[in-house]
Every structure is written in structure tokens, then in C-alpha cells.
Specification:
Four copies of one chain form a homotetramer. By secondary structure, chain A is an alpha+beta fold. Chain A has 13 helices and nine strands. Chains in contact: A-B, A-D, B-C, C-D. At the A-B interface, helix 11 and helix 12 of A face helix 11 and helix 12 of B.
Chain lengths: 304, 304, 304, 304
């Protein structure tokens, strides 16, 4: 498969179409980004790399990082995790409180904000030095020892984070936050502040295409069963209430972020990352969605 | 892979565990079934067959048939279909009216009752002799010329079908039913009345594992893209509000019915059907779910 | 109190203001009405009468009639009635199915469509010849022996009644409709088809201002306790999800209809009826609401 | 009317019936109260007083105080207030977040927690020294210069106040809290911490039965129109989702608190207060509801 040619062809095709999305504007760190940025990167499980456009430029990966916090918590806690958070798609917006009220504080899945906050609470209980230990884990998985939280983004997120503060207080009112609110929400805001490039993203998430193992060291980050399960959750819950649409049009497990990034995984084949800041009305990268749909059509590679 | 041995081993293991589910009792045709029935059948895309237990006994496939009506409507109407029904998981019970009210009569997906009824309305508009033509299509796909609707089950469904009558009137109040109510709901109740065995089910649904082509005649029932998309919808929406759980534990696209049947598809590999009448509290076959979870664990074959 | 002068002054004042509402258009019998019609009538418990404008012209009283069916059912069944329908405001639209789903088929109150349908089911069980007996009751209460159902309006309502058909099937699916659907919904559509003038309305509903007794014959239609309770329900539930607004601005128990009529009661003082076909966005008569607000301000007469 | 005899008779009758409610236990200050306390007090607009039982014992009036903060805010801001909070019954629990999500941060009414918090935000903007000025207002209205906040109750409320913290953050995320969260929620928790006896309550709330004027000084606390409107809101929204039930069985505007107190007003006649700590499952005093129902039946005095 000539991935490089396909990627470049689609990249040019999509650049010619007007981008009808709009950039997330709730914090300056997102609204200040050049909205025309567009990068694509693909890494195969054989460690071959293909990319184009702004694929080496750092951007705020936002919710994509929730896959990493979940991986660490799942690895440490195992199936017990699922007493605290579900695995069902939410059927409503990413920051809805309605579902929490009906389900008495158990978030529908670990990728909506409520669920990611509960995962942070679990890590807060499990880790010695949570903020540092989580960062260390991400550095190891990504092979990027210099990777760090962005204090500016974390502070901006917090300053606009009334909805997330509402979520964590609401969940705690049901007893599903076990630590004090402050360190947990601080961990959450820092998690969302990480910046990576498309090339770094595929490198970081490639273990999910490789049965949980680092393709270069062979080291297991998750076991095979855990890996399949995280992929399944990305498939059904990775795109807020557009998860079905993504499964339908793209057919790969993946996770998007409000910064315009999307990571998708083809088990046993590759990890692909796309970045374009303008979002469709569901909050997922407009061009990113277009690219991945056409890419899987073109390559006839989807898990279905 | 020694499918026969794995199937038989798991069959025996599961038979030893007490079945904590309960049989659907809303119509006599379902409540009268021996609750201890348990059958499994697997057919590979190379037309190899493996099975055990009550795998050749007929049972009411109920909602599993919705995949067939969707296949026919999608084949005839193409992407226009998705203006009338969504592809997102519902996040609530299979017969909920709440979502319809918020979404102004557009069902979340074609597998909840509301969505399947809209598909019947589409077929009612597209087909010359809808009830007969749909049956003919199912006979062809299944290679079972003697297959027929069960008038008894259809009549029983209708006699208890107040919720479905509420759904169709409600959808029509939003303008998303275009024909008279009577023939559409009659088509729907007949669709749900079909009976098959596990062996017949795998034979019928094998095309979904084979890129849309009949494995014996090579004839295309759906094109490759359509097939992938139906698989994607089964993955995200095939198990009511347990779709995420099924993706998480089993990792295959599939569809369940209230009669205790489950069909699942491993693209490019096989189709598998399980039948055991007792349902878990989400309305899916208890033993069927257990079997498929252990089967994909044992074979290490899931799409993730 | 010079009611006649106050009524006429306000009538002229309001006629000068542009009417921002819009006429209900879902059936021809409503949409064909001259939207500029405006009538007011007031009858005191001493049988004094005051009126102006189109106060003697017949119009479709629609949901206002639900107070009469409730009165008859409550009189016959007593407190048992409240096992089948609640007395709480609905907090959502008059024909919402959402609440029914959460409350398992028990309508929140007898004035939303769902509740009025349950009341019709109760009358269907209690009366010998329900449609005729209900009409007879209304004739007696109103002192209008020639009053009749409008077959045209009833037929029109039915032809557009998908939402109501959805409601009755939905309620029956929960077991809270005990008769066959057809006669019950037929009774409901006929109930909504009655036509009266403002002058006839005040005459009919005056017993609610008079502790349940006919002001001319002294005969008890309801006892005092029942009367107070129906007034209380009109106060909290008589205006769909604008009940609080009506209590807040007008301060009298009342009931509105989609034909543009409003009846309100000042216990021990008077009954007042207003008719103006254009509705505000909550479905209540725009000019009717304005008039009643200013009337109770002007007269300083509210129950609060 | 021999109020004293009726009150004493009903008091004895109700004491003989087992109290099936249960005391609010979420803070020690409420759970430590003797659950058998039962007091009743009535003050007429002619300043006659009647009472029995524990009518002079202080208890935590909790949400009853929300009528006072509303009165002050309404008096200062006038009709502008209703852009920030509605006047419709909520149709759901007193601390639900669901409605807020649908209505974009505008609470349904000023008596659910969300609404009372918005009122505190309004006072925070309007008053120089909000906590002190509000207290001063309540002291004046009640004629109790020694009345004070209970720092213990306020601190307890805060320590258990995750749901309220969720509410205020959620409302602020919609822009309907204009001040910093801390002083507003602090004002709210202090407001809820006030303690009064039944006798003090009737004295304090008597102005609502007297067209807004203090019965002893003749001074206007609210004007007549404002008074009627607050009574109307108490009528439709004063008892959480039991408001319709209270209107139906009691027929007076009123407000309850989780401490077991209820205040009700008969315009132009009297104010009555009841206290009994055990609550029914809707969160209103069990014996208080029983007493008021029987009292208005006995006296045949309701506003309907």
C-alpha cells in the first residue's frame, strides 16, 4: 500500500475544499492557532512512517490524552475500574450532566469529561505523586522524555472550567469522587494541557495497534485483552455523540480532541493522526473527519 | 483454528453455570420456548461449518431480522436513507420515545424499534408488493426458499404492540412516516416474526463477513462500502444500550433479538450465531453474551 | 366594581396594540377563523353579566372542555381518580411523551393531553353511553340543551391526531388505558370539538366560582371540596408550561384552549372568559393573557 | 373562627397517628433534632395569635428563607429579576441539574436551589455588604433584631454542599452567575442557616398575607402587586415537585424547608407555620402536610 501517495493526494484534495468548521475559541491557546494548519502522519506497526503538511508541529491534543490516563488506570486497577465508569456511548454532549443525574454519578464512559475526571480521581488514589507519575508514564509511552504539561493551557482551561467544576462537584455529590476536588481537577486540567505533533501522536498510540506492545522495545504497556478493550471503547465512545458517524464513515477506533487532533488505530496495521483546528458542529475536526473517511475508503482498510 | 473443539468446550462449560437470565414473556410464542435451549453455529467465509447443541432448531429471530430489512433498504436507496434515520447509539432503551421527542422524529439508528419502523416505511414506498418482496429478498439472501413469516407470531406481536403503535404514530406526527400506518406496522410485525436456526442464521448473514458477497454464488448483496457500514452500525448500535459492553467484551459487530438469538460477524473470517432464550436485564441472551465473550477471548479473534 | 367599564376600556386598549401571536393552523376549523376576533364576558356569582366584542360568537373551546370531563369523572369516581393521573404541573409541553416514560404511564395532571385521555378512559368505563352521557352532562352544566359535538372538528382532530394516538397507545402499553383504544380516543376527539361563546363559557364554568353549585338552581355539580381541588389544579396546571406565568401575572385559576379561549375563575366572585385566536408561543391566547393580566391588575382582584 | 380550638384538636389527632416520615440526615444540625417535635402557630392580619406544641422552639428554617431573599431582590430589582430566573414549577427534584441544561442556565423558579443561588448572585451585585445587609433586612421584616446566621449550620451545609457547588458552577458556565462563586455560595449557605420558631415565622411572613405591609407598623415591605406575585410563585413552586399536591390538598401559597418547617399564607386573613422534622418522600414535613390539609378542610378556608 503506497500510504505516502494516498496521504498526499487526499491532503491536496481536501485543501482545495473550503473548510466549513470553526476553531474552538473558549481559551486563547486554542483560538490563537492558525486555523489553516493541516497535518497528517501514519506509522505502521513495522515502524514505517508517512506524513505530510504540518505533521511535525505541536498542538494541544486535549481529550486525546484521556486515552493515556485511561490506559494507566486500567493497567493498574484492572476490571475494578468499570465499577466507577461505564463503557457505553453517551448519546449526548461530551459535558452533559443529564446522564450523570439519571445514572447516579457513574459516567457513561471514560472519554466524556465526567468519565475522564473519575479516571483522574482513580489515578489520584493510586499514584504516589499523581501529576508527575502520570507525566512520566506518558513520556515513557511516547518515548518523549522532554514532553511536559503546558501550565498556560492548564491555567486557561481552569479559568474557563466552570462546567468541569460542576461535573466534579456533581459526581462527588454521588460519592464517585474519593479524593478532595482540588488535586483531582488539577490533574485533569494538566492532562488536557499536553501538546504533541501528529508524528508524536502516532508514535505514542502505536501500541494500541500492536496488541499493547511498544513496537520498538517490544515492552507491554497493556496486555492484549486490555488493548482490544480500549480500542473497543474508542470505537464506540471516542467521538462524543458522533461516535456512530465515525464508525460508520471511517470504521476505525479513534479519539478526537477539541484542539482539532484525531488519532485512529487500525489493529495490527498502523496508527494514524490528523490535525486541523476547525471543528464541525459536533466538536470534531472537520478536515480530519473528511480525511479519515476518504483515507479508509481509498485504502479499503477498515476494521469492518 | 479448531473452532469445533473450542465451541464444544465452551458450550459444556457454560451449560454448567446457572443461567441467571429470564425468558421474554410478552407473547406466548416466546414464553413457551424451552428456556434451556442452547445452540451455537459458525460458518467461515470458506463455507466451513461448525456447530453444537440446538443449532438446527428454529426460533424467533425477532430484531435480528432488522439487519436484513436495513440491507435491502440501504441497497435500494443508498445514502439518502440517512436523512430518515441516524447512525448513533441511542443511549437508552430500545423502545424509548424520549429520544424521538428531542430529535423531532428522527430515530437515532435503524436497530432501535423506531428506526426499524422507519426502514419499513421506506420499504413500503420502494417495493411493489412490500411484504412479499421483503420476504423474497430474505429467502434469496438466506438460500431458504421455504422461509416464511409466522402469522401467529406477527399476530401476537401486534396484540401486544402498543408501544410500537405509539412509536409509529409519534414518528408520523413528525412527518417521518410517509405511508399509512397500517401497512407499515404490518410489515414491521411480520419482519419480526421470522424464525431461523443458528445454522440458517450464519448462512444468511455470512455476506456481511464477506464484503457483501454471497460466499457460494459470489453474487453481491451489498457493495463493500455498504457492508462495512452495516457492520459499523451493528458494532455501535446492535445491542440496545449494551452495545458498548458487547464491543468491549466481545469485540465483533453483531445483532441480538429478544428471542435469545445473537448473530456476530468477524469480517473476512466468519459469521457466528448463538441461541439461548434467557435474557440478561438489558434484553440480550445471557448465555449468548457469555459464550461470545469467552469465544473471542479463547480464539484471540476480535476486530480490535 | 364597574366591571363593564373596565372590560371595555381594556378591550379598546388591547385592540390598539398589535397582536403578535399566531393562529393554530393544524386543522382547517381553527385556521379559518378570523384572527382578529376578540370577545370578553364576565358573570358574577350573583348572575350579573358584563361583556364586549365578539362575546356571543361561537368558537372551538378545545382543551377548556377538559375541565368538564374531569368534573364529571371526579364527581363519579372520587379520590380514586388520582391513582390514574397526577395533580402536578408537567414542566413540559402539553403533548410531551417524555414525562409519561419516566412516570410509567401516569400522566402528570388531567389537563395535559395524556391526562385528559386517561379521564376519557375512566368515563368510558363509568358511563353507559359515554359519548352521549358526557354531552348530556355538559348540556346540564351549561344550561344549553342544544349544545352538541362538532363532527367536522372531531374528524379534523382525528385526521391530525397522530400525537394523541401515540399518547394513548403509549399509555396503554403501561396498562393505564383499560378500554379499547378506539372508543376512548373517539370520546376524546369529540370532547375537544365542542363550540361555545364567551357568554356560554362563563355561564358553564360559574359553578367553580360558586363552591360547586349552579348559581341559578342552587344544584350541586361538585361538592365544595371537589370544587376547590379542581380550581387548585386549574391554578397549577391549566396553562401547559405557562401555568406559573399565568399564576404570576393573572393570579386566578383558569384553563386555556388552542382555539384561543381562556376561562378563569375568581372563587366566590365571578367567572370570566376571553377569546382571541392568535396564540403566544406557549399556545395560550396572546390577547387573552394580556387582557386577564391587566384586568386583575386594574381590579386588584386576584386570589393572592 | 375558633382557630385555637381547631389547631389544638388537629394537633392531638395527628400526634396519635404514627409519623411515617424520616428526618433529613445530611448534616448533624438536622439529624440531631428530636424527630417528635411538633409545633403550630397562626397569626392573623389583625395580629391575633394562636399556637400549640413546640411553637416557640427554634429550628432550621432552611429553604423557607428563600422567600425572604427573593422578596429583597424583587423589591430592589423589580421585573428585571425574571430575566435571570423563571416562575414555572420545575417538574423535577429541587436540586436537579437536568432542567438547567435544557434551559441554558436559567433556573425554572427562584425556590429550587439553582434559582435561590441566582437570587443570591443578584443580591451580591446589588448590596454593599451582602451577607450583613440581607441579615439586616430579615431582622427588620421579622422584627427580631437578635436574629443571626448559624455559622455551624452554614459550615455543615458547605461541607455537604457538593450538589449546590455543582449547580453554581454549572449556572456560571452559562453566564448566569455574575460574581465570583465564593461569596455567592457563601451567602447562599448562610441564608439557609437561619433558625426561627413557628411563632417567629408567622410574624415574619405575615406581610405576605397583608398586601406587603407590616401589620404593626403599616410599613410596605413589598407593594401589593409584588406581594401577589410572590404568593403566586409560592403557590406554584413552593413545594418542589409536590407543589400541585399542596395546592390540591391545602389550597394556600406556602413554602417548606428540609428542616421540617412549612409556612403558608391566606391572603387578607392569616399566616400559619408548622414544624415537624420528619419528611415525606418528597422532602416536605409529613405531619406539617397532614395538619395543613386538615386545617383548611376544617376551616373551609382556602384561596380556591
Amino acid at each position: 500500500m503506497n500510504y505516502q501517495r494516498i496521504i498526499e493526494d487526499l491532503y491536496r484534495t481536501i485543501l482545495r475544499e473550503p473548510d466549513t468548521g470553526s476553531v474552538a475559541a473558549y481559551i486563547p491557546e486554542l483560538s490563537a492557532v492558525d486555523p489553516d494548519k493541516f497535518g497528517i502522519y501514519l506509522t505502521t506497526v513495522e515502524n514505517e512512517n508517512f506524513g505530510t503538511g504540518d505533521c511535525h508541529e505541536l498542538f494541544s491534543i486535549q481529550s486525546i490524552a484521556k486515552v493515556l490516563s485511561l490506559s494507566l488506570a486500567y493497567n493498574m486497577l484492572g476490571g475494578e475500574l468499570w465499577k466507577r465508569v461505564g463503557v457505553e456511548p453517551s448519546g449526548s454532549a461530551f459535558n452533559s450532566l443529564v446522564q450523570l443525574e439519571y445514572d447516579a454519578g457513574i459516567p457513561r464512559n471514560p472519554f466524556i469529561n465526567a468519565g475522564a475526571i473519575v479516571i483522574c480521581d482513580i489515578l489520584q488514589s493510586l499514584l504516589q505523586d499523581p501529576k508527575n507519575d502520570l507525566l512520566q508514564f506518558i513520556r515513557e509511552v511516547s518515548g518523549l522524555p522532554g514532553l511536559d504539561y503546558s501550565p498556560e493551557i492548564a491555567a486557561s482551561e481552569r479559568s474557563q472550567g466552570y462546567r468541569n467544576m460542576a461535573l466534579i462537584h456533581f459526581i462527588k455529590s454521588f460519592g464517585n469522587i474519593q479524593n478532595d476536588i482540588e488535586p483531582v481537577i488539577d490533574l485533569y486540567f494538566h492532562l488536557c494541557s499536553i501538546r504533541m505533533s501528529c508524528a508524536q501522536l502516532t508514535r505514542t498510540f502505536l501500541f494500541l495497534a500492536n496488541n499493547g506492545r511498544d513496537t520498538r522495545t517490544g515492552q507491554a504497556i497493556l496486555n492484549m485483552s486490555q488493548t482490544k478493550r480500549i480500542n473497543a471503547i474508542m470505537q464506540t465512545c471516542g467521538f462524543y455523540d458522533e461516535a456512530g458517524e465515525f464508525a460508520y464513515t471511517v470504521g476505525l477506533p479513534g479519539k478526537s480532541g477539541v484542539g482539532g487532533g484525531i488519532v485512529a488505530v487500525h489493529p495490527n496495521k498502523y496508527c494514524i493522526a490528523v490535525w486541523s483546528p476547525r471543528l464541525n458542529r459536533k466538536g470534531n475536526s472537520q478536515r480530519g473527519m473528511w480525511f479519515l473517511e476518504q483515507f479508509t475508503t481509498e485504502t479499503q482498510l477498515s476494521i469492518f
